[in-house]
Write a structure and sequence with these properties.
Radius of gyration: 21 Å
Low-confidence stretches: 1-20
Order of helices and strands: HEHEEHHEEHEHEEEEEEH
Shape: elongated
Structural class: alpha+beta
Largest sheet: 8 strands, antiparallel
Oligomer: single chain
Number of helices: 7
Mean pLDDT: 89
Length: about 290
């Protein structure tokens, strides 16, 4: 399906006109996100630990027995609200945001005599970034009747160039075009293009930070994805629409979001554990 730009996106694209249209070589963000475990809800590992160890939330409750004058119920809350059976339900959005906005934990830290390993620190940060302020692009695909082709490639290309190249910050994309959601921070890309008439055929490779790592992994493990698409141009060289091509018709990003501020969860929101307070984590781990 060929798309047409309307409203705000038309205004943005007319202003930028994609000059230059395609950057040469690989483009890498100034901010490189860190890899961390995605903490699947089916296993509820943030709250449940092995018989010889304590979970990240166990240790958090030991460090802060009370929160806002009440008994800390972080473990119980996690078991109640973040313990589901769907295989893809996890904390990938919290990890994606934290890996972009926070410095990576790389060593054991002690607070009140309690040792917090790299996995503990990353897990708690991941939980505290489950709710953020963000800019959102595209629409989530929820099944039959929704627009499967969205997010359109010309919008995705613009977001890569505007953020990674121009601003030096990663974007987060849902790598799965179907109903499941797999968020990954994208921090680098490379484009090759060939023009013919008013059409430009593009080959795009993106580098994303991977969450399929050991819980105590330090650094950035990456994965790559390749996409192909066609851009449609008018006689002035302005992009008027686009379509995914080849395998990318069925395998392309679903939506993109860019986190910019960590905020406390709303009381009625079950996406983030309300007992895990970011200011307490800052104090405990001496975050800036």
């Amino acid at each position: 399906m060929r798309s047409k730009m309307t409203g705000l996106l038309v205004f943005i694209f007319l202003l930028t006109a994609f000059a230059p249209l395609f950057p040469a070589g690989e483009v890498v963000s100034k901010v490189v996100p860190w890899s961390g475990w995605w903490w699947p809800r089916k296993k509820c590992q943030l709250a449940k630990a092995g018989w010889l160890s304590k979970s990240p939330l166990d240790k958090y409750e030991m460090a802060f027995p009370t929160v806002d004058g009440k008994k800390n119920m972080a473990v119980d809350w996690e078991k109640k609200y973040h313990s589901t059976r769907k295989s893809w339900h996890g904390h990938c959005n919290g990890w994606s945001a934290a890996s972009i906005m926070e410095k990576e934990p790389v060593k054991i830290k002690k607070y009140k005599g309690i040792e917090f390993g790299v996995s503990d620190q990353k897990g708690l940060l991941t939980e505290s970034f489950m709710v953020t302020r963000y800019h959102f692009f595209g629409t989530r695909y929820n099944g039959r009747g929704d627009n499967f082709d969205d997010i359109y490639p010309h919008v995705f290309q613009y977001l890569l160039m505007e953020n990674i190249q121009k601003k030096g910050i990663p974007i987060v994309m849902d790598m799965s075009a179907d109903e499941s959601v797999w968020n990954y921070p994208v921090y680098a890309y490379k484009m090759d293009s060939k023009s013919k008439g008013n059409k430009v055929k593009v080959k795009l490779r993106i580098w994303a930070c991977d969450d399929n790592v050991d819980m105590n992994f330090v650094g950035t493990q990456y994965l790559t994805k390749d996409y192909t698409y066609t851009l449609f141009m008018d006689d002035s060289g302005t992009i008027t629409g686009s379509e995914w091509t080849g395998r990318s018709k069925k395998d392309h990003p679903d939506f993109v979001w860019i986190p910019y501020k960590n905020i406390p969860p709303h009381e009625e929101d079950s996406d983030e554990n309300p007992w895990v307070k970011y200011p307490l984590l800052k104090k405990m781990f001496k975050l800036k």
